[in-house]
Amino acid sequence: MQNLKNILLGKPLRNSQLAGEKLSRLWGLPIMSSDAVSSVAYAVEEILLVLVPIGGYMAFNYAPFVVIPIILLLLILAFSYAQIIDHYPNGGGAYIVSRENLGKFPALLAASALIVDYIMTVAVSISSSTAAIVSAVPGLEHYKVWISVCCVFLVTFGNLRGIREASRVFGLPTYIFIGSMTLMIIVGFIRLLTGSLHPMVYTPAQLATIFPKDTMQGIGLLLLLKAFASGCSALTGVEAVSNAVPSFTAPSQKHAKQILFMLAGVIIFIFGGTSILAMSLRVIPMPNSSVTLTSQIAQAVFGNSFMFYMIQIFTSLILLLAANTAYNGLPLLLSILAHDGFVPRQFSHRGSKLSFSNGIMFICVVSSLLIIGFRSDTHRLIPLYAVGVFISFTLSQYGMVIKWRKVRDRGWQYKMLINAFGAVITAIGTVVVFSEKFSEGAWMLAIAIPAIVLLMYYVKRHYDFVNKQLEISSFRPYYRKEVAHSTQCVVLVHSISKALLKSLNYANTISQDITALHICRHPEHAEELRHEWDKLNIPVRLDIILTQYRDIVKPLDVYIGSREQKLDHGENLSVIITKFISEHWYDNILHNQTPHFLERILSRHKNVSTIIIPFYYDNQHDFKYNGESDGDDVMSD
């Protein structure tokens, strides 16, 4: 299995190679912009789909009142997230801002909203890409669900191979799409200025599908707000850069800010340029047709030339690659949440390619289930989309308002006013989007987001409950070493806790030759363990093995093999492993199943006995959760 894994994913990387897996500015821009750029591709169409059926051709006169505020809001968000990058270099975006400035539950709300947004980004973008494929080849209609699931697996596989390889594979098509859209806008402007590009002409049958049958109605404030909320899909993905600051090459904060501003520039140019062309050409969106607004503009500018087909192909491809933004942002967010104890701490572990592989697999599984459950129907998935990102926008903006009031550094007043204005606008957008999409399926978010918040709260409570019971104030073994039996014994240790005390007490009953063994993934943790071990004056030798590949199984196998070779005839070596026993079956997912894997590998040694020491927590223990624990694991699992 290990050989197969190496063939599929490539050879594992050392911890020291992590710096080489960081994203440079060249590849960080396309990786972080794929979601935002793909949203820009249909944001103008979403605005006109709201305005045109009510106002007819008058909608093009009102469109600037929607486009300009969206661009203004983008500039505010870019400014805000640049400040977040400066003050919160470890990533996490809205979650970290809310945790520090607004409290635990607003932070969990922000995290839940981001999780929903990232998952929906994958499901919606993949389903949209599949819809484009099916529209080109109608015979694949019955297989669209499995096509979408295969696309999810493809993107997942690319990300499991490592950040560097994923950036090369997914970055180039994004650059080609940006270049194609830039060329279309420039050529379109030149043709408009020279008078060779004229407004679109539609047949009465085409107009009947979109224009109202009755007299044209006026376009009021509520309709403009609805169009604004629909067009704000152009802003989805902006938060990804601040969420993933540690993913960039050093100096990560400087490069993250540069990528953020480049991303904002790309969005403004493409969104603004496409809007101007759409209004100048009076392009009418066709809701019941596979012909998109972008394809109509491209055909008007280039005709049926090579560039028209290139834009068509890469527009479809960028929708597929938009999912990649979630694969870079969500695993890092989950690792931060795992460190804080709000999600299973397996999400904090890096895989063999130094990526957060558990988070990547989580995206794959959940988005695939959504695609299967909603039959890969974009129209059914869209109502669940964008609400989450607006919630995170609002909380991050409001959190920064509180931040400026605390720090009061130079220019804090105008910074606070900008963030306050952004918080009001995004809050309005949240209400409008949620209310407009409520009956279409957004009501499910009113259940899903609070459910995720409660789930994370109880995960944290469980970890704090267990950690409280594992705390010890002094180290007093029950048995004296001199009365123990003669045999060799190795006790595996992660940290000093009641679980370790129980294991050493048992070891003292069977052996006078005891070695405590810690296999180190993180050198700083090993140093803390050694310091605490010496401080407590524990009468057992502590051996520490440094593993460069975050794998504890193979180093343990090698160590035990070398000890086994030194055994005299008839001697045996006992290895003691502590296993945490959960009261409920569903608690098991919150703890690593490392003892199972260690037991399997140790069973290959004929002169080695594996002893599993169960550790139970007391369900009647008087412990009240106060939410103040740091969430650090002190267990040996």
Can you give keywords for this protein?
637 residues; mainly alpha; Amino acid/polyamine transporter I; Rossmann fold; 2 domains; 5 strands
Give a short overview:
This protein has helices at 2-9, 25-55, 59-62, 64-87, 94-101, 104-136, 144-160, 163-194, 204-208, 221-231, 240-243, 252-281, 293-302, 306-321, 323-339, 357-373, 378-381, 387-407, 412-437, 445-470, 498-510, 523-536, 553-565, 594-602, and strands spanning 488-492, 513-520, 541-546, 573-581, 608-616. With 637 residues, the protein is mainly alpha-helical.
Descriptive notes:
The protein has 637 residues and is mainly alpha-helical. It has 2 domains: 36-459, Up-down Bundle (Amino acid/polyamine transporter I); 473-616, Rossmann fold (3-Layer(aba) Sandwich). Helices cover 62% and strands 6% of the residues. The chain is built from 24 helices and 5 strands. A 5-stranded parallel β-sheet has the order 3-2-1-4-5, with helices on both faces. Strand 4, helix 24 and strand 5 (608-616) form a beta-alpha-beta unit. Helix 6 packs antiparallel against helix 18 and helix 8 runs parallel beside helix 12. The longest helix is centred in the first third of the chain and has 33 residues, at 104-136. The radius of gyration is 29 Å and the shape is elongated. The protein starts with a helix and ends in a 21-residue tail after the last strand. The model is unreliable at 625-637 (pLDDT under 50).
